[in-house]
């Protein structure tokens, strides 16, 4: 380890010289209060900024053990430190100066969710933060004096303000940790309570706008209020007693007039697999961690998926037991999205009519008369949703304002009226009795088999040009894997581009388990098991901008690689009787 003064000497020496001389500062420095790691120096002022780490020993940082003594707390504290470091860098870093990215000090920026991230770590010996610095230049000439100011004036202030316990607001810090711990506790309680989701009374579900996930504010926000019949009380470890709507397992319909808050409720449930920051409004909206939002996704590629539970007798005798296409339709894509989720262990399906294929959801009596079953390949979801629960124990929460035929297959019916849910199950049952649906059930006796698939390693080629491995993410919704693009636009439960980045690298990591025998589920499980050690297993170098993802999204991404090739495994028939 070099002394900090050595860094200063180098910066003064290379001042005014070519940008490449910055390479000389790569290394580890003892800065007294902390250790500085200059891991990677950028090649030029326009390239991705240089990667830097700081480790503050706990005798200086001073975080009490109870701030990180279990997984929930540790992740929340790391998230908190990342946010504080971000704030401090905007306060103390003078920002851009010179060419390109010159002058910036920046860290991964979390949103409304609290996620495990590789930007910050808290251990007994030290606190570590990973960030980037744009080493300053004018043209391509080293601006050594500016670099010196960044390392010796700005950075120490940022570190002190954000990584020293004594300089942080203790009550804000503990609130952050306790909210996350409570939410994790609540999510774990769902199983014991026989629930798939919980929405706290007083929760704020609507968002500021379609592109701003902060809570909606102002006088017209209606706080959530559970119907009496579904109200559940839970005692949380920190907050104590809370009440809210418990949605039991089974089939739940969300109905109600247009613009009365149905989609907003389901969107909150989709994101209830994650913890939210204090003040978000959805802190105590939690969902079964294996919940998947399902939507139609026409245009996607499909590789040998057994969609026969939903679709049969396609034109030209196309095989739906191992269905492949380069360009799926709305209904085949929606069926595929369900089957692929079942393959990797989904427990709750979340479906919104707004993003569903109508012909996948429903086929009414009149249409059944006009187009006979043998001319219609699709068995609509309405005829399968009960079997899904009975045979495979997969629950569904479904927004459907447009078809009362679903009353026959629902365990409960929630009606949204002016943003408040009412339990209208009894009325719906009575109506179903009075006007018996004339449609015939087309679903057969059982849901049908789920045939698992074995991904073949050769179909995952991360190379591009002379690079053996070239994987990058473009924002939230796209991964460039070698020469191929993976489109994640329909994966609604990804919330952070650092998740996307991690998934890109995790797909490559997963290839080590593709031995021609393991199923996709087994492979995803193996990757997640390794990742219990942390996100760092994905990369030999320290990376500061990974965020944790679920196996369900990893599988979803692999399934959308357009070169994917699989072998199907024998069908496992599921025939529970209710
Ligand atoms: P639906 O799916 O029933 O047509 P949405 O969920 O799309 O309705 O909601 C319609 C509008 O109402 C959206 O702009 C949404 O932000 C707003 N909204 C939803 N819930 C609330 C609420 N609790 N308070 C105030 N506005 C809300
Ligand atoms: Mg809607």
TrEMBL record:
Residues in MRB1590-like C-terminal domain copies: 470-567
Annotated signal peptide: none
Domain ATPase of the ABC class C-terminal: 170-452
Domain ATPase of the ABC class N-terminal: 5-165
Domain of life: Bacteria
SUPFAM superfamilies found in the cross-reference section: P-loop containing nucleoside triphosphate hydrolases
InterPro entries the UniProt entry points to: ABC_ATPase_C, ABC_ATPase_put, ABC_N, MRB1590-like_C, P-loop_NTPase
Recorded coiled-coil stretches: none
PANTHER family per UniProt: ATPASE
Record's protein name: ATPase
Species of the source: candidate division WOR-3 bacterium JGI_Cruoil_03_44_89
